[in-house]
């Protein structure tokens, strides 16, 4: 199973030799078998990449991300040939029943808030706030029509990061959260495409300019994994560093319990999205197919 994450920082030129990526720098060259790669992150603007590299990575289904000049993920390369029943999958997706979509969105919101509750418990936060979030769960209506998700998020973030914390402020905590979320979003988008789904046909999020609205829907239960890491490892630092970015990328290699098993995060995403697809056929969704953040095992670099 592929598991390595390759981060390209200072390379001048990258090409392919046989089934390996060749990374050339002033100090020499390094070869990395493509079969070992789960993801590749291109950080440097100065790197020259051959089209053969891009095609090989897409062919092997490697998550490939290009960063902008602030080192934030800016582009995701996904293969056009995603699934042997591509047309059938997208046709089914277009015809997903509206009530089924609202039902599933409600379950996603419920699981996300449950994972936020687990984070507050694991970090020994105020029990009254935990009770408050449980109350929001009890008040959930179909499609979260009363927006309990947003109310829960406000209480949750204030309790986790402090009453002065705001998600729209420019600080190292938000930089870390945004970076971590973008990595999870990219991994979810990659899996969505590999399953033959169209990433812009969503359950809930609707934006004519958002090419990955479905990824934004389905990634929600995984966000608390990033939150907990940022709280534990980055919150008390002075700034958001490159080492922090590498650690957040490495969350793809953490283990999380799903369906009663501890698996790598990328495998958990695949199990979860398979269940989403199956839900629209069988009208059943097992809660065990949601990630359990209380069981996360971080892989230390």
UniProtKB/TrEMBL annotation:
Family: Belongs to the CRISPR-associated endonuclease Cas1 family.
Cited InterPro entries: Cas1, CRISPR-assoc_Cas1, CRISPR-assoc_Cas1_C, CRISPR-assoc_Cas1_NMENI
NCBIfam families according to UniProt: cas1, cas1_NMENI
A GO term for molecular function: metal ion binding
Main EC class the enzyme belongs to: hydrolase
Keywords per UniProt: Antiviral defense, DNA-binding, Endonuclease, Hydrolase, Magnesium, Manganese, Metal-binding, Nuclease
Identification of the protein by name: CRISPR-associated endonuclease Cas1
GO biological process: defense response to virus; maintenance of CRISPR repeat elements
Subunit structure: Homodimer, forms a heterotetramer with a Cas2 homodimer.
Keyword Hydrolase listed: yes
Transmembrane parts of this sequence: none
EC number of the protein: 3.1.-.-
Cofactors: Mg(2+); Mn(2+)
Gene that encodes it: cas1
Role played: CRISPR (clustered regularly interspaced short palindromic repeat), is an adaptive immune system that provides protection against mobile genetic elements (viruses, transposable elements and conjugative plasmids). CRISPR clusters contain spacers, sequences complementary to antecedent mobile elements, and target invading nucleic acids. CRISPR clusters are transcribed and processed into CRISPR RNA (crRNA). Acts as a dsDNA endonuclease. Involved in the integration of spacer DNA into the CRISPR cassette.
